[in-house]
Design brief:
The complex is a heterodimer of chains A (282) and B (336). Chain A is an all-alpha fold. Helices cover 76% and strands 3% of the residues of chain A. Chain A has a single domain, classed as ABC transporter involved in vitamin B12 uptake, BtuC, CATH 1.10.3470. Chain B has one domain: ABC transporter involved in vitamin B12 uptake, BtuC (Orthogonal Bundle). Chain B is built from 14 helices and four strands. In chain B, the strands form two sheets. Chain B has a two-stranded antiparallel sheet. In chain B, strand 2 and strand 3 form a beta hairpin. The chains are: A mainly alpha (282), B mainly alpha (336). Chains A and B meet through helix 3, helix 4, helix 9 and helix 11 of A and helix 5, helix 11 and helix 13 of B.
């Protein structure tokens, strides 16, 4: 297997992991699957297009800005659309409707034509005699740093503790003075911000158009069931498994690897319906 | 007849009036375009009815479009390769879809809940991948062309290629049959059991209800109806191909059911499907690029004001009318 394929699989994995962890966070606190999650990915990609490509702001500043902007959009959506409606099924339908709202809005603003973002890290680096695209390497490093930061945030800070408490026992957490509603708003913001970051770091490698959100969402959904619903570690494992299949299997068997991705999810669900790490995490 | 009796019969009378209206409608209104929109809305009605039935058993299927695809391809193959007549290939499509649903259902319905949703999502994607790549059977992206059927009833033979009206009436018949079936199920003991399975699976199991049995029954029945809808759709379009069965169709079905109202097994999905597909097509024509945005916003606003769907209006509207009259009355009712 050429090393480039391996790096490719890591790039895909990091995209899936970032998407899946945002989805899992929102699911664990609010109990709903956010079907518009892929559209926050798309918004992040457009944010980086406008900030970095058009306005010429430093790449890392643009990353932070796009996460902040899209996260804020997520907070607005949670606070002013989802929360007043409340009932889970209706909220799920709202998120489905948001898919066409965001896609329609971006088509109006940016047009349907695909855009491309130039790489912030051009050229190649050679490690131990193997030359690798520095862009892909940087993407993987950024993604790993983000995931570690997210893990530390959830496990080591008081806010992270509040999030875990609100996810496990919302009523008890409320009794102990945690404002569960405020925590879920924050989590929605973080989840959407993560999706935006995924979109932003992937934008230079893929093209950007209003409909790029669909595929990452499907893969993130698969990743969270492979790993086990509601656990961050599970999302990481699921993302790695899918990323490996997506690029390594594709290298050897071509298009049918997609069938493997979906098939393996069903097989895993059959033998471990709680996901590979469903029980050990919670 | 006294008033109470009339009041009790009112829903039935209204329903009959509505059915007669739908029968006469295309004869009076000669708008061919409107009829074609209504036929497509009818396909979505059947689809939404199947989706709602599964949903009301407590399972949220994200891959119902796969059964549309199974029905569609079976219908197309039976018609074009085996040369079966119209009715038989519809039936065959329904049966094959039901068999696939039964076999998949006894396996994936074990998971239940969100795992089931995502397993069905994966199945929906698998169905599209197979349809795109299994060239020898599905002809990939080019799809299969299906000739318009010629139905012979006794001496009378109707060629579907010349007019769309037969499609309209067959669709109407199929919807009425499917609606009757789901309505009867909902009213029967089976319906009660299925609701209890949805609302309280653990409790139902404790009183001796075999969860899987009922989930599989309703999943199979829904797939049967969906498969027939798929085959009908393929006949109507004279073509079958992967784009017809995108996974997003299942999400559209959910939107339809919630807009219409999920508290009723039959009227909600039908009303929702007609409204969403009619206005969806109209928006497509008149708004073009603005369509997705407006569609999304309208759905959000409708759910905001009517979280229980349009069906809820039958309770809210009379109350609203009454409140109008109360305000106008000059002498307030002292007793109230």
């Amino acid at each position: 297997m050429p090393p480039a394929i391996f790096i490719d699989s890591l790039v895909l994995s990091s995209m899936y992991i970032l998407m899946a962890s945002g989805l899992v966070l929102v699911f664990s606190i609010m109990g709903i699957l956010n079907f518009a999650h892929g559209q926050f990915y798309m918004l992040g990609a457009y944010a980086i297009f406008y900030l970095f490509q058009q306005a010429g702001i430093n790449f890392f500043v643009s990353l932070a800005l796009s996460a902040a902007i899209v996260g804020f959009v997520g907070i607005l959506v949670e606070r002013y659309i989802m929360r007043p409606i409340g009932q889970p099924i209706q909220v799920v339908v709202i998120t489905i409707a948001l898919i066409s709202v965001f896609e329609g809005l971006i088509t109006l603003i940016a047009g349907p034509a695909p855009r491309s973002v130039t790489s912030a890290f051009p050229g190649t680096v050679s490690i131990a005699g193997v030359s690798l695209s520095s862009e892909r390497l940087a993407t993987v490093i950024i993604a790993v740093l983000l995931i570690v930061a997210l893990y530390l945030f959830i496990q080591r800070t008081r806010l992270g503790l509040a999030m875990r408490a609100a996810a496990q026992q919302p009523v008890a957490a409320g009794l102990f003075g945690i404002k569960v509603a405020r925590v879920s708003t924050l989590v929605m913001g973080i989840g959407c911000g993560l999706a935006a970051l995924a979109g932003a770091i992937m934008a230079p490698m893929f093209y950007v158009d209003p409909w790029i959100g669909g595929q990452p969402l499907v893969m993130a959904l698969l990743a969270i069931v492979i790993g086990g619903m509601g656990s961050l570690g599970g999302a990481v494992v699921g993302g790695i498994v899918l990323g490996m299949i997506g690029s390594i299997a594709a290298y050897y068997i071509g298009f049918w690897s997609q069938l493997i991705s979906f098939g393996i999810v069903i097989v895993i669900l059959l033998f471990r319906p709680q996901g590979l790490f469903g029980q050990s995490e919670k | 007849m006294d008033k109470a009796k009339i009041k009790a019969k009112l829903p039935l009378i209204l329903l009959l009036a509505f059915i007669i209206f739908t029968i006469i409608f295309p004869l009076v209104v000669k708008d061919r375009f409107l009829i074609s929109i209504l036929i497509e809305a009818g396909v979505m009605c059947l689809f939404a009815l199947g989706f709602a039935a599964v949903f009301r058993s407590g399972q949220f299927s994200l891959g119902q479009a796969a059964f549309l695809a199974v029905g569609g391809y079976t219908g197309a193959l039976l018609a074009s390769k085996a040369g079966l007549p119209f009715w038989l290939s519809l039936l065959g499509a329904g049966l094959s879809s039901a068999v696939v649903a039964f076999l998949l259902g006894i396996v994936i319905l074990r998971m239940g809940g969100l795992y089931f949703s995502i397993a069905t999502l994966a199945l929906g994607e698998i169905a599209i991948i197979i349809a795109k790549n299994w060239d020898s059977v599905t002809s990939g992206m080019t799809g299969i062309a299906v000739n318009a059927p010629i139905v012979k009833i006794g001496e009378l033979s109707i060629n579907f290629a010349t007019t769309k009206l037969p499609y309209y009436y067959i669709m109407l018949l199929l919807i009425i049959l499917a609606a009757l079936m789901f309505w009867r199920i909902d009213r029967s003991r089976l319906g009660t059991v299925i609701r209890s399975v949805a609302v309280a699976p653990v409790m139902s199991e404790h009183v001796g209800i075999h969860l899987m049995k009922y989930r599989v029954i309703i999943f199979t029945l829904a797939a049967f109806v969906t498969g027939i809808a798929g085959a009908f759709y393929v006949y109507y379009l004279s073509w079958v191909g992967p784009p017809l069965f995108a996974g997003s169709q299942s999400m559209v079905a959910l939107i339809m059911c919630v807009i219409g109202g999920l508290w009723s097994a039959v009227s909600g999905p039908i009303i929702g499907a007609i409204i969403v597909s009619y206005f969806g097509t109209m928006m497509q024509i008149h708004l073009e690029g603005l369509r997705p945005l407006v569609f999304g916003v309208v759905v959000i606003v409708m759910i905001w004001f009517m979280p229980n769907g349009l069906v809820e209006l039958q309770y809210r509207f009379p109350a609203w009318v009454k409140s109008l009259f109360k305000k106008k009355g000059k002498v307030p009712d002292a007793a109230a």
